[in-house]
Amino acid sequence: MLRRILLAGFSVLASCGHPTGVMTPVALTANTPKTSQVEMLVATTRQPSANPATLFNGERSPKPYLTDIAISIPPKRAAGTVQWPEKLPPNPATDFAVTRVEQLETRAEGRAWFQQHLVDGHALVFIHGFNNTYEDSVFRLAQIVHDSGMKATPVLFTWPSRAKLTAYEYDKESTNYSRTALEQALRILAQDPSVKDITILAHSMGTWLAMESLRQMGIRDGHVNTKIRDVILASPDIDIQVFAKQFVEMGTPHPKFTIFVSQDDRALAVSSLITGKVSRLGAIDPSKEPYRSRLEEAGIAAIDLTKVDTGDKLNHGKFAESPEIVQLIGQRLMTGQPLTDSNITLGEGVAAVVGGTVQTVGKVAGTAVAAPLTIIGQPLPAAAKPVEVEDTLRADPQSKPLTQ
To answer: Fewest Cβ atoms nearer than 10 Å: which of 88, 132, 139, 178?
Structure first.
């Protein structure tokens, strides 16, 4: 009964939706205003839909698929938003529109695509969250790449989400189903000598998939491939203690971790209640103990977006819907410039996010490199008693409970 009530409330908060079936390519004509083009390689464990308008559905496929996709982005739009068409076919002058879809049949074709689209040796792998269709994830990555101005080759990994609010458990199991496929995709990228570094950007439930795949890689090899330089977890829907265990078991050295959190994230509040009132990583207050010390000890930077307003009713997609935040990802994190290194002031990062200075900037700037950055303007209500994760973070990284 409680879960039904929660999901009903989730439905009220969710968006009204948009037209489906937008994956059929449209042609750009001489009369089309100049648009921006985003080209991406899409890997998926979804089942083909046999419909060119959707390409893939939310069911699981034992065989992964690769697709070359190009998206046209209209010239006049608000940054941080996806311009879904009001009717089909999309109008490239006003809407996001797919302009090319080409299925790739072999890994060799995937490698060839990557060679042709290589940008300074940098690769971005995006993993979407809960309640996303194939086209949702394609358009979201196109928006992120365009609005961030990042210089990297975009790769989307989309897992089988049924895109229904009542399918939370199915979606969670689909991430588990897909973790080996994601690990293999990351290995293939890392094996390419032309790839200098890989950044993983994962959102919501997709952060679970990212962590599980990196944990698997660490267990197999003793550590995560060193080309995987940065891991950015936005609104991570992960049990805090489980995250600590995953982090330890992926071995050392670790990639650089950055987490985006928000204490007003309503989607994570619902997730917490569904999963037994267990605190989610994406809803912590990183300025409070024990989180601040534990994050600093682990070398994890935490960015608190609680006071950043994007108009998102769920406060769950701020990382992509705030123009300043998405530009921060592209211009600093994606180029190997952590917000807390000694070469820049934190004031620059804070100003880029909230458009001004914050009283705590001076104090934060004087702390260790990995100290969390807090982008908040006023005190928040007292939170529930934090979960103690020290024992887990200090656990033996060589422990392999699944093999003993």
So the answer is: 88
Q: Which residue type occupies 16? A: C
**Nearest-angstrom CA–CA distance, 371 and 78:** 33
Q: In what order do the strands lie in the sheet with 97-104?
A: 97-104, 56-73, 36-48, 153-158, 122-127, 197-203, 228-234, 256-261, 300-304, 373-374
Give the whole-angstrom CA distance, residue 88 versus residue 328.
34
Closest CA to 285 of 302, 299, 269: 302
The enclosing H or E element of 370 equals none
- The vertex-375 CA angle with 370 and 380, nearest 5°, equals 110
CA dist list (Å): 69 to 25, 53, 66, 138: 9, 13, 10, 8
Average pLDDT, the chain: 79
Place of tokens 């290194």: 341
- 31's CB contacts (< 8 A; 6+ apart) are none
pLDDT in tens, 99-151: 999 999 998 999 999 999 998 899 999 999 988 999 999 999 999 999 998 89
Q: Cα–Cα distance between 402 and 274 in angstroms, integer?
A: 26
Contacts of 92 (CB under 8 A, 6+ apart): 26, 28, 32, 33, 35, 72, 74, 99
pTM for the model stands at 0.82
